[in-house]
Specification:
The protein is α/β, with parallel strands linked by helices and 207 residues long. It has eight helices and ten strands. Helix 2 links the parallel strand 2 and strand 3.
Length: 207
């Protein structure tokens, strides 16, 4: 079973659509959905209050993404935690397939799993990246990655249609073993927004 953590900040109707997609397709795998609201003023928090399996935590102010995720994760008791962006939608098998993959004993050394992301136009969107390095930075500055994408950070040289070991899974759908998240003390809250997931991936791989 999995606990889904959603950080909300003025997500409008997207948050409700996200919750509806979970209920429609994968609710049987979910023990709890924790929405941490970072001081929204658009009423999106109130719209989900009292929903089945949903626990709403109001932070009253914008604490940042990493801290809000940690607050939600502290409430999780399940084997897996899924950090899910409020502007995403789950579909049939969006959870069942990655959980089955993680449950396979051959994958016991894998701490984080992502899935193929599809954008509004039905196109495969970038869902992973390489770790930052001086060589990748120089490749981007000099434009080398435009001609040789295997030297770039965004992994555009891979079609994202098959399973692949990667450095970093993009945080829009970030499935983590709860034990790994606890061992690494969660996201580094010094990152207010952006790169906290990249930092966690780096520490997880090192661990």
């Amino acid at each position: 079973m999995v606990t889904i953590i959603i950080v909300n900040w003025n997500s409008g109707s997207q948050l409700q659509a996200c919750l509806d997609s979970i209920n429609q397709y994968e609710i049987n795998l979910v023990c709890q959905i924790i929405v941490v609201d970072n001081g929204s003023y658009d009423g999106s928090d109130a719209a989900v209050e009292g929903k089945p399996k949903v626990k709403l935590i109001r932070a009253e102010s914008n604490l940042g993404f990493g801290m809000a995720c940690n607050i939600g994760a502290a409430q999780a008791k399940s084997e897996y935690i899924l950090f899910l962006n409020p502007d995403t939608l789950l579909y049939r098998n969006s959870l069942s397939i990655p959980i089955k993959f993680m449950e396979d004993k051959r994958n016991n050394n894998i701490g984080i799993c992502g899935i193929q992301l599809i954008d509004d136009n039905g196109q495969i969107s970038r869902s992973c990246s390489r770790f930052f390095s001086l060589n990748i930075y120089l490749s981007h500055i000099l434009g080398i990655d435009r001609f040789f994408p295997q030297f770039g950070e965004q992994m555009t040289d891979w079609d994202h249609k098959t399973n692949h070991m990667v450095d970093h899974v993009i945080g829009a759908f970030y499935l983590v073993r709860r034990t790994v998240f606890a061992e690494l003390d969660g996201f580094d809250e010094r990152f207010f927004v952006y790169f906290e997931d990249h930092d966690f991936s780096y520490r997880a791989k090192d661990h």
